[in-house]
């Protein structure tokens, strides 16, 4: 059975990354702007009505959100990703955020048996479209290995490797 993947935040950067993942994995998607999801739905993704729906139906969830406040809200507010994820779920944030953001998320996720990987990307929208992004991952090795095949650039030149834990 294929790994179930979710993607939250399918705007300028998230949409092409999600499209690359969708080529190989069943996916559930959510964005605050419903129009941003249309091409992915037409490509076979399942539409979710909220981040909660995504995390409840996915083993691996990617987020690509505008800034730290957005990431912290989606992950940490009551009923957010950390609260709703099943133990063993892998949450991967691809956003460019303040160093304090993953420091807040990782310990709360770990306390619930949920894996968190901080994974900012480099390469811009053109790299996202071409699946040539560099993905710089911080987190534990085991969930990184499990998630590697689902990476938005896994089939090209992405850089997935163990760096400092998210709580550096």
How does this model look, in words?
- This protein has 168 residues and is an alpha/beta fold.
- The chain has 8 helices and 8 strands, in the order βαβαβαβααβαββαβα.
- It has helices at 14-22, 38-42, 51-56, 68-76, 81-84, 100-111, 124-130, 141-147; strands at residues 5-8, 27-30, 46-47, 60-63, 90-93, 115-118, 121-122, 134-135.
- The strands form 2 sheets. Strands 3-2-1-4-5-6 form a 6-stranded parallel β-sheet. Strands 7-8 form a two-stranded antiparallel sheet.
- Helix 6 links the parallel strand 5 (90-93) and strand 6.
- Helix 1 runs parallel beside helix 7 and helix 4 runs parallel beside helix 6 (100-111).
- The longest helix has 12 residues, at 100-111.
List strands and helices in order, with pairings.
Blueprint lengths: L4 E4 L5 H9 L4 E4 L7 H5 L3 E2 L3 H6 L3 E4 L4 H9 L4 H4 L5 E4 L6 H12 L3 E4 L2 E2 L1 H7 L3 E2 L5 H7 L21
Parallel strand pairs: 1-2, 1-4, 2-3, 4-5, 5-6
Antiparallel strand pairs: 7-8
Helix pairs in contact: 1-7, 4-6
Query: End-to-end span in angstroms?
Result: 35 Å
Mean pLDDT: 90
> Structural class, please?
alpha/beta
Radius of gyration: 14 Å
| Helical amount | 25-40%
* Sequence of strands across the biggest β-sheet: 3-2-1-4-5-6
Number of helices: 8
């Amino acid at each position: 059975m294929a790994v179930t993947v979710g993607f939250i935040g399918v705007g300028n950067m998230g949409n092409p990354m999600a499209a690359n993942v969708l080529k190989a994995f069943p996916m559930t998607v959510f964005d605050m702007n419903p129009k941003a999801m249309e091409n992915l739905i037409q490509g076979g993704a399942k539409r979710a009505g909220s981040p909660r729906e995504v995390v409840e139906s996915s083993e691996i969830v990617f987020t690509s959100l505008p800034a730290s406040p957005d990431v912290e809200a989606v992950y940490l507010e009551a009923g957010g990703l950390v609260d709703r994820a099943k133990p063993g779920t892998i949450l991967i944030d691809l956003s460019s955020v303040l160093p304090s953001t993953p420091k807040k998320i990782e310990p709360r996720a770990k306390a619930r048996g949920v894996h968190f990987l901080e994974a900012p990307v480099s390469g811009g929208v053109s790299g996202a479209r071409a699946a040539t992004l560099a993905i710089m991952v911080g987190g534990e090795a085991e969930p990184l290995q499990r998630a590697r095949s689902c990476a938005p650039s896994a089939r090209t030149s992405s850089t997935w490797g163990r760096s400092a834990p998210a709580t550096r």
